Every structure is written in C-alpha cells, then in structure tokens.
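As promised in the previous annual report, we have extended the structural survey to additional targets. Below is the entry for Putative ring-cleaving dioxygenase MhqO.
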Amino acid sequence: MLRQIKGLHHVTSLASSARENNAFFTNVLGLRRVKKTVNFDAPDVYHLYYGDEVGTPGTVMTYFPFSGAARGRRGTGEVGTTRFTIPVGSAQAWAERLGTFDIANVSVGTLFGTPVVGFDGPDGDRFALVEGEDDRAPWTGNGISEEMAIRGFHSADMRLREAGAQAELLRFMGYEEQDRDGALIRYAVPGGNAANVIDIEEAGNLAPAGQGAGSVHHIAFAVENRARQLEVREALLDTGYQVTPVIDRDYFWAIYFRTPGGVLFEVATNEPGFDRDEDTAHLGEALKLPSQHEHLRAALERHLEPIGQ
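The corresponding structure token record, generated without further manual editing, is:
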C-alpha cells in the first residue's frame, strides 16, 4: 500500500468558453484565478487555474476551454461531481447566492449526514458545496465573506460501471473505506490533506460517458515532492499500470495513468507551486507560457479570447 499520496491536488475539466468559465469561478464562486497559461500540449487553448490565494494543492480547479466545444455526455467512467468545503451553517446562504446568478439545478440536501448544495456549472459540470470544519484560509479577494468563502476541495465522486477494481486501486493508493450513503461508497486517506475524500458510485446501468465541455478530463492526487512521486510511479508500474514518464508542467511535475474504471488519474507534486514565475500579489494576471511555447506569444495573444480580471 502506498503512503505517499495525501489526497487531491487538482481537478481538470473541459469548457466551451474561457470568458464564461472565468466569470463563473471568480465572480460566482469567489475563487482566485491563480494562473493564466495554455494547454502545454495544445497551446492555442488556455489552461486556467482557480483556487485559494496561492493555489494550494487541494484547492485548485483547472480548465481547458475549447471555444464552442459541444457538451459532454454524462455516464460511467468519469468523475461525476466535484465538491468544495464551505463553512458550517453557510449552505442556505450559498443556495440563495447561486439563485441570484441564475445557476442551473441548485438543490439543498444532505450527503453522509452533512448539508450540501448541489448545482451545475456553465457547461453542465456538476458541483457541490459541503459544510464542514476546515481551517484552510479562504480567498476573499473577489468579494465573498470569510463566513461563507470556499476553503478548497472536499471530495470528488466517480461514477463507474463496476466499482471493484477501482476500489482496489484506491486502497492501494492509501485510501480506506469510511462510510456508505445509498449508492456511494466513501474512501479517505488517513492523515491526508483537507481534500482526502473520494466517493465511488457503481452505476452499471448507465452508458459510458462521452467527453466534452463540462466533463472532467483528469483528477490529480498530491504527493509532497518528486522523490515521493517516483516511488509512486515505480509501485504503479510494478503493479501493471501503464504510467507516463514524469512531465514538467512548470508549477508541478506530473505522471498519468488510466484506471480500471476509465478515469484518467494524475499524480502531481506539491512543488514548486504557482508563485515560481509570478509574485503572490499578481498571480493569474499575465499570460504565462512555458519556455517551449514562448516563441508563440504574439500569435497566442491575438488568438486567445480576452477573459478580463
């Protein structure tokens, strides 16, 4: 069993509009845009990162906005809902706030006995806000008070055709079964970070998901540094997984592998962080390009959609 993985690092999804995506996460949810860069593998597309003040691992939602992309098809083999932690007692205030922005499919209920507000993102992406005790410092620079500001990720759920092999993988990664609520089985990393929960839903009667705008592209798990990442990579290879070489993503190092349930997993380092090329006061303001794409700057600045502050 692995002990290096601490919980979530980031979640990366697809969108159809950079401007709408930016407005939703900064204006509606009140997160900070901590990096404005490009998809390193397709540099004509943004890669936008939203999180707390410095983009602490376990707080960062990221997007590849492909202009005009068709919506994905929900089904099995994907991350179904991404959840954030909010302060205890703030669920109703969040439901009311989301209503003022005409956010789709807002619902208030409970999950594992805890108040939860569910809602859709601009492309039908499914999110939830979960009340909980959480001492992470929130970002309040976009006008949401500390009394209701998002603290970071709480968890994510995976909707699978068959849960057994995926559950076995999670246990190998250091997760332990914690609880059950209806069709959901909850796993957590003991002693992990504040985003150490994954839920699995077995939904074999659903058709496979089709990726598009609103789909999660991959889900990333946090390790402290490159040495721990190499240990994880070696263990996964020894277990039979096809794992990529380590890839430098400027703000972290990454490895990727496809899981038995069909979900793409990444293992990302907590180092070096989003302030490696910008000071904290100005994170996410300028277009930052990896060195291999710097020669494209003039063309990219003409091509990429303006997204505002």
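The two ends are 44 Å apart (CA to CA). The longest strand covers residues 42-51. These points will be discussed at the next consortium meeting with the crystallography subgroup.
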